[in-house]
Design brief:
There is one protein chain. The chain is an all-alpha fold. It has a domain of 46 residues. Helix content is 85%, strand content 0%. The longest helix has 36 residues. It is elongated, with a radius of gyration of 17 Å.
Amino acid sequence: MANIKSAKKRILVTQVRTARNKSIRSAVKTSIKKVDAAVASKDKEAAQAALKGAISQISKAASKGVYHKNTAGRKISRLTKAVNQLA
């Protein structure tokens, strides 16, 4: 355990950031699962609605620095491609 005051603060700040990042990542994963479920059930309307929410969440996570911008772009691209494959 840290003895120096600044080191103690860094530990606290890291815990707060880790919790925030975990929450944001979890929300992104949930929104991706909703899109995947809609695609699996071949429901184009629901898939497009879920895709819109997922893109918003992923973009927000990337702007906060939780995801790298290329990772966010890849996730969005794959989801969009899956929804567009629906006839």
